[in-house]
UniProtKB/TrEMBL annotation:
Belongs to the peptidase S10 family. It holds the Pfam family Peptidase_S10. GO terms for biological process: proteolysis; secondary metabolic process. The keyword Transferase does not apply. Residues 1-36 form the signal peptide. Keywords: Signal. GO terms for molecular function: acyltransferase activity, transferring groups other than amino-acyl groups; serine-type carboxypeptidase activity. This is Uncharacterized protein. InterPro entries: AB_hydrolase_fold, Peptidase_S10.
């Protein structure tokens, strides 16, 4: 089932008035949620490719994969590249997700092959041949159709003819996503678009972050220590990322994915500054999240318990700043009789916010 068909199906099955249960859920490093209006655009400037085989993967793909471009700026020739993977369970009834990778400007291939997607690289010594891919049985596509988007312009295989199109920030990149969606649907009711902030805050932002972290009393004193002559982090994940460079820059891979020749000279997993400019013009998205919460929209907040870039202690801190009422305190979460993490449920007014730590 093509992407346009999936969008139309979700619009038809979920009328506009059902705001409390939106059919189109967009997720990123920070969550994004959009509810479509009941009409699909017939003028979307999109080109697509149905991918049945991928170099490095043995045999036909066991899932439906579509890739393509959507033009978002006629003046600059900017086009965003996407991967659409259909739900492997029940495409007609399962939700439709949009995933935006942070960074800023990291390719969404990171999510497709390293996080929630149906593919993963085989970690083995590199011998000069094309890295191998295998199926990921724990993919979120087991229960949902997912639209992975290289956003903003300059991420992954997204490109523009005019260099000015690459000068973006939190707000302008959000507008690019909105334009992308409007090209696919005639109207989109946007509840909110949250982009990740920069990893290196200004002095003023540092003071704010330190104040927030102080709220996480039981986790504030966590620290890393080790021998001074040894690297502080394991290089296993870095090596996996190198495999993605070799794979994504292969000409056969580009042809299979339908990448337009000459648009991206070299695929780079993250084109954060100084590779490409990016303005951190949205210091915090907390107030936007709060405004959505008091309107009754549901939200799932999750963090990895070993994530040192976006630590769970920070997630706990900003959610606590809302003074939510705890409905279900921390408890063990099990899946198929295996420990999967900890979970708690908190509520603000008529909304429900569930914090899930994995």
């Amino acid at each position: 089932m093509a992407l346009h068909a999936a969008l139309w199906m979700h619009v038809v099955h979920y009328p506009r008035r059902r705001l409390s249960s939106p059919p189109l859920l967009l997720v990123a490093c920070l969550a994004v949620l959009v509810l479509p209006q009941p009409m699909l655009s017939r003028t979307a400037a999109a080109t697509s490719t149905v991918v049945t085989h991928l170099p490095g993967f043995d045999g036909p793909l066991p899932f439906y994969l579509e890739t393509g471009y959507v033009g978002i700026e006629k003046e600059t020739g900017a086009e965003l590249f996407y991967y659409f993977v259909e739900s492997e369970r029940s495409p007609r009834t399962d939700p439709l997700l949009l995933w935006l990778t942070g960074g800023p400007r990291c390719s969404v291939l990171s999510a497709l092959a390293f996080q929630i997607g149906p593919l993963k690289f085989v970690v083995e010594p590199y011998d000069g041949t094309l890295p191998r891919l295998v199926y990921n049985p724990y993919s979120w596509t087991q229960m949902a159709s997912i639209l992975f988007l290289d956003s903003p312009v300059g991420s992954g295989f997204s490109y523009a003819h005019d260099p000015k199109a690459y000068e973006v920030g939190d707000i302008s990149s959000s507008r690019q996503v909105l334009t992308f969606l409007r090209k696919l649907m005639s109207e989109v009711y946007v509840m909110n678009i949250l982009q990740p902030t920069c990893h290196i805050p200004s002095r003023k932002q540092r003071g704010t972050l330190e104040g927030l972290l102080s709220l996480a009393e039981e986790h504030y004193h966590y620290q890393l220590s080790g021998a001074p002559d040894e690297p502080p982090f394991d290089c296993f994940y870095d090596y996996r990322y190198y495999l993605s460079y070799f794979w994504a820059n292969d000409n056969a891979v580009g042809a299979a994915l339908g990448v337009k020749e000459g648009t991206v000279t070299e695929w780079i997993r993250c084109k954060s500054p100084p590779v490409l400019p990016y303005a951190c013009d949205l210091p915090s998205s907390i107030k936007y999240f709060f405004n959505l919460s008091i309107r009754g929209y549901r939200a799932l907040v999750y963090s990895g318990d070993h994530d040192l870039v976006v630590p769970f202690s920070g997630t706990q801190a900003w959610t606590r700043s809302f003074n939510f009422s705890i409905v279900d305190d921390w408890r063990a979460w099990h899946l198929d009789n295996q420990a999967a993490g900890l979970t708690s449920l908190v509520v603000l007014l008529h909304s429900s916010l569930q914090s899930l730590y994995i």
